Amino acid sequence: MWYELKNPASAIRELDLTRLPADALAFYRPFHFSPHEQWGIYILVEPLVQHCDVLYHSFGGKLAAFNWETLMGCLLFEVFHHEFFHHLTECAATSFEIASAGFGKPKAIYSNYWEYRFDKTDGVGPHPDHPLEEALANAYAYNSFSFLSRMEIGFKLIWVKVYQKILEKCWAQEPAGYRSAGKYINAEYVSGAAQLLAMLLSSPDPDPASLMLLAKTVMPSGNSAFLQKPDVPTYLVGGTDALTKFGQLIPAPNETYTSLFWLGDTSSVDEYLKDRKKKEALAKKLG
Ligand SMILES: [Zn+2]
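Above are the sequence and the zinc ion SMILES. Below is the predicted complex in structure-token form.
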């Protein structure tokens, strides 16, 4: 475990990992489209459970960081945050729509954007990472793990570090857009989000500095969402068997997909890792 924490990239380098893009396991239904009351995040439990199996078996017992439950927790957290980003995009578009109505010239920002998001590439022109929203959704999910890892050293930190390396390795096999996520992780996210805002506004003459400022401080971000993560309607969809199996593994799904909560007791591993870190720091000091 210590090795995986210190060298997450080399811990997974030799593994033959296969995975599906997040949207094969879940989807976001925008509130702009009728029936409006059915908007929200839909998580497809059968493919999710199957996919977790495939991913877990591709480790072949080679990773200490994960058992089936903890891997499932990370997968669920990732998929939810990918879809939550689609919600953030819709909220950003809606804020512009409300502002445009305030100016007395209401614009259908989201519908216009939606039309060229996948099909046409007019507006500001074709984006090299088209569809950019998918690259950013993957990057947002990745970055959400980083926010969690600003915690003290412990078992969860290993999941975060190893799982992020798994994502980086797997993106290459995903469809166009999705596979460009690596360009927008960490600090690069802001420039990607600014480009997304330019696409939403579809202005022929956008001011990059203003858009960068908006992307950095206002939206799309969790703070500018109309509903916070635990309140976004989220549906677990699947047959009784799949839902039962899923429920046994993930007893508190809302807490798991919003904050990677896990019921298991990690205290002995956490203590060991803290101790190991202390010893290493001491050894360094003694030279
Ligand atoms: Zn997506």
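Strands lie at 26-29, 40-44, 234-237.
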